[in-house]
Amino acid sequence: MKNLIRIGTRDSELALWQATTVQNKLEALGHNTTLVPVKSTGDLVLDKPLYELGITGIFTKTLDVALIKGDIDIAVHSMKDVPTALPKGIVKTAVLERAATHDVLVHKGIDFLGQQGTIATGSLRRKAQWLAKYPKHKVVDLRGNVNSRLIKLIENEWNGAIFAKAGLERIKLLPKDAITLDWMVPAPAQGAMLVVALENNPFAIEASSQLNHAESELTTQLEREFLRTLEGGCTAPIGAYVEIKDQTVYFKGCLHALNGSTFIEVEKERQMNKASGFGKSCAYEILESGGKQLMEEIKNELNDSVH
């Protein structure tokens, strides 16, 4: 019997789509695989905003535990859900080729954009960027997997909700009239899938690392480096997007106040061969331009709202 690779995944439709994609790629390379779905705390606790749950790793902890206990060999994640520091003993083995990075607005008609309106999202980043552009709007919290969020939008009086384009496209639920929010800076690593394994499992590492897409690995690494340098363990409305064209790396990053009233942006380019540490230097630029103080304010505001 050939080594069986047990692939851990959350049990939402989107997570299963991602894990099945990894499974098909591994089987095409001749490996024997099976899917092991688990429920995460982030999927079970839907009545609290994410930042109140001590957000870091809320969707990944359950799979981390399954890896460490030896119940699975690899885990497949939406990379934007993964904390920038992996748990001790767990290593990144592959970043799959990235899909669409933008956010989209799923709506019930767009007449409201120029006036009052209510938008739903569970993301501090989306909320802050939306309010920066549409300060008259109200933003309500929306949690759950993609399918249940779409149903909640239909059931409520809201004008629209914000989703990651990649997620809706993957499970064929992107409405034809959804608006791509190309002005919104995405979450670091949005649209990318990450595979992790235990560092002492050479077989799983060797097998899954064959799925790595080098350019996607570099762009997400720089975006997450930016996030890690800025956040210092605090959740905040941080966006980052890296694009590579003709050996040039283009970086765009931003930090917003929770209510969108102020924000700091950075836009830079660098040659590909000098890309190392680019995300970090962009983060320092934001911190030195008032970002340090803004991060303190965000931290205090979030603490006040939890207590």
How is this structure best described in words?
The chain is of the alpha/beta class and 307 residues long. 36% of the residues lie in helices and 25% in strands. It contains 9 helices and 13 strands. It has a 5-stranded mixed β-sheet with strand order 2-1-3-10-4, with helices on both faces. Helix 8 (214-231) packs across helix 9. The longest helix is centred in the C-terminal third of the chain and has 29 residues, at 278-306. It is globular, with a radius of gyration of 19 Å.
Number of DSSP-assigned strands: 13
User: Element order, helices and strands?
Assistant: EHEHHEEEEHEHEHEEHHEEEH
Shape: globular
Output mean pLDDT.
92
The neighbouring-strand order within the major sheet is: 2-1-3-10-4
Q: Percent range for helical residues?
A: 25-40%
Strand content: 15-25%
Could you name the ranges where pLDDT drops below 50 across 5 or more consecutive residues?
42-46, 50-55
Number of helices: 9
Class from helix and strand fractions: alpha/beta
Task: Report the oligomer.
Answer: single chain
How many angstroms separate the termini? 54 Å
Instruction: Report the sheet with the most strands, covering strand number, pairing sense and barrel closure.
Output: 5 strands, mixed
* Radius of gyration from the alpha-carbon trace, in angstroms: 19 Å
Key terms:
307 residues, alpha/beta, 5-stranded mixed sheet, 9 helices, 36% helix, globular
Task: Give a short overview.
This protein is of the alpha/beta class and 307 residues long. It has helices spanning 13-28, 41-44, 61-69, 124-133, 146-155, 165-170, 202-208, 214-231, 278-306; strands spanning 4-10, 32-38, 74-78, 90-95, 103-107, 118-120, 138-140, 160-164, 179-181, 193-198, 238-245, 248-256, 263-271.
